[in-house]
Amino acid sequence: METTVLLAVFGGVLCGAAGVGSLAIGFLWWQSYRRTEILRSNLGPAVPAQSQSAAQATPPPPPLYNKQYADYQSPNVSPSAPSVPSPVPAALAQAGIGPGSVWLDGIGGMVAGQRITIYKDETLLGRSGVCDVQFHDLKVSRQHALLRRYNGQYYLYDMQSSGGTFVNEQKVESQQLRDRDQIRLGDSVVIFRRS
Q1: Torsion of CA 45, 144, 65, 119, to 10 degrees
Q2: Cβ atoms < 10 Å from Cβ of 176
Q3: Direct distance between the N- and C-terminal alpha carbons of the chain, in angstroms, rounded to an integer
Q4: d(CA 54, CA 77)
Q5: What is the side-by-side strand order in the sheet with 133-134?
Q6: Which residues neighbour 155 within 8 Å (Cβ) at sequence distance 6 or greater?
Q7: 92: which DSSP letter?
Q8: Helix, coil or strand: residue 29
Q9: What's the rounded Cα separation, in Å, for the pair 81 and 95?
């Protein structure tokens, strides 16, 4: 939010005229407020109604930023290294991937051939410089999706992106991820991996 306020002030100064500058400041503040409200809202499951047995088999993903849960964990921003050496192949160990690690393997678009290791409990995916994982793809929204760890499981949330977020070629609002799920944001395609 502080970054947006600075951008708003800078935008007002750049615009020069007091009326235009005030209008720019108001617009940028409104965008920041709207984005904050979207992030804080509970997205809930966007999965179409299924049979009772299928609905009971997969619990709905948890809402975003709901601290009422007893097991809520604040985002961890520092990577944690395993305390014991892991029996992983040398190539993966050199890339910092061990037991319990999560990473994205790029297979299409601008991320093809890249490996992106996920260290945080909440990882923002998008085109903007503020995102934890940047996609240099014009079809990816500035803040496109959020990858969140909750109770040892990973969930992907669409952040009301213009192009949509797809898991295994199905458009999703929120989805629990499993090893080898294919995620598509714009023209960029990654494979969710978990050791």
Answers
A1: 110
A2: 19
A3: 35
A4: 35
A5: 133-134, 122-126, 145-150, 153-158, 174-177
A6: 61, 62, 147, 148, 149, 174, 175, 176, 177
A7: H
A8: helix
A9: 13
Strands of the chain, DSSP E: 102-108, 115-118, 122-126, 133-134, 145-150, 153-158, 165-167, 170-172, 174-177, 182-185, 188-194
Task: List phi, psi (to 5°) of 42.
Answer: -85, 115
Query: Which pTM does this prediction carry?
Result: 0.55
Span 123-156, pLDDT tens digits: 999 999 999 999 999 999 999 999 999 998 999 9
**CA angle (162 as vertex; 172, 136 as ends), nearest 5:** 100
- For 61, residues 6+ apart whose C-beta sits below 8 A from its C-beta are 43, 45, 150, 155, 157, 174, 175, 176
CB 103 within 8 Å of CB 88: no
What tens digit of pLDDT does each residue of 62-85 get? 666 554 545 545 444 444 444 444
Residue 107, token pair as written in the block: 């297979």
134 beta partners: 126
Q: Is the dihedral of CA 76, 81, 84, 90 positive or negative?
A: positive
What is the C-alpha to C-alpha distance for residues 96 and 58, in angstroms, rounded to an integer? 31
